[in-house]
Amino acid sequence: MSLTVRVWRQHDPDADGKMVDYQIDGITPEMSFLEMLDQLNEQLILSGGEPVAFDHDCREGICGSCGVVINGRAHGPEQTTTCQLHMRAFADGDVIDVEPWRAKAFPVIKDLVVDRTAFDRIIQAGGYITSPTGSAPEAHSTPVPKADADRSFENATCISCGACVAACPNGAAMLFTSAKITALNLLPQGQPERTSRTLGMVGQMDAEDFGGCTNVGECVASCPKGIPFSSIINMNREFLKAARKGSGN
C-alpha cells in the first residue's frame, strides 16, 4: 500500500506545531500502526530528517502508552490500542491524520508524545490500600461476592492510556478516575480508605484541570478495555456519600 500520512510535528512544548505530510510506500496489511510509524522514521532518518517522536513500550495492548488520535479517533478506527491496530484497517491511497492526545491536562512534550503524569497524581491522591506486611493471607479468609469481584476486575483492566480523555469533547477524566475508584472501593481491602480515596482522587482530578463530564459517552466508545459508563455513575454516587460523610451529615 501507498499512504499519505499527515503527522503533527512539534519540536517542544513551547514551539508551534503543524501537520506535515509524508508519503510512505510498501506498507503491508499485516503491519501494525506502530510498525508503519517505524518505517516512516527509517525513511526520515535515511533522508537526513528528524524522526517522529511517539510513545510506546510493550506493543502488546497492555501498557497503553502508545495512544494517538488517528483520523480524529482515539486509537483509530477500531476499539483497541494503537499498537494493536493493523494497517488492514486502511486502504491503498488513504490519507491518515495522526495527532497527539488533545487535552489541557495532557500538554504536548514533542510530536505525538504528551505528558500524562496528571493520571499518576490522581492515583497518588488515593489509589492504594493499607495492607499488613508479611505472608499473604489464606485465599478464602476474605470472601468477596462474585458480582463485586467481577465488577472490580472489569474496572481494574484500565491501562491508563488516556483515550477516554482524548475522545471526550470536554477533555474529562471521569472514566479513568471512576475505574480506579470503583476497582478498589468494591473490595473488602479497599474499605478503610474508601471515603478518603474517593474525595482525594476526585479532588485531584479537578485540580489537574480536566474538563467536566456531560454524559456524551465517547469515553466508553473509545476505551480499548471496555470500561463501562456505569463506573462513572458509581463514582458520582461514591463521591456524594463520601462528601456527606466528610461533612458529618
Please give the count of helices.
Answer: 8
| Biggest beta-sheet profile | 5 strands, mixed
Mean pLDDT: 95
Looking at the structure, what is the overall shape?
elongated
The strand line-up of the biggest sheet is: 2-1-5-3-4
Radius of gyration: 20 Å
What is the beta-strand fraction?
Answer: 5-15%
Order of helices and strands: EEHEEEEEHHHHHHH
Q: Given the helix and strand composition, which structural class is it?
A: alpha+beta
Number of strands: 7
Low-pLDDT parts are none
Q: How much helix, percentage-wise, in residues? A: 25-40%
Tell me the distance between the termini. 64 Å
How would you summarize the topology of this molecule?
Layout: E1 3-9, E2 18-24, H1 33-46, E3 69-70, E4 73-74, E5 95-99, E6 108-110, E7 113-114, H2 117-124, H3 146-156, H4 163-167, H5 174-185, H6 194-207, H7 218-222, H8 230-247
Parallel strand pairs: 1-5
Antiparallel strand pairs: 1-2, 3-4, 3-5, 6-7
Helix pairs in contact: 2-6, 3-5, 5-6, 5-8, 6-8
Brief overview:
This protein is α+β, with helices and mostly antiparallel strands.
Could you explain the architecture of this structure?
With 249 residues, the protein is of the alpha+beta class. Helices cover 35% and strands 11% of the residues. The chain has helices spanning 33-46, 117-124, 146-156, 163-167, 174-185, 194-207, 218-222, 230-247; strands spanning 3-9, 18-24, 69-70, 73-74, 95-99, 108-110, 113-114. It has a five-stranded mixed beta sheet with strand order 2-1-5-3-4. A two-stranded antiparallel sheet has the order 6-7. Helix 5 (174-185) crosses helix 8. The termini are far apart.
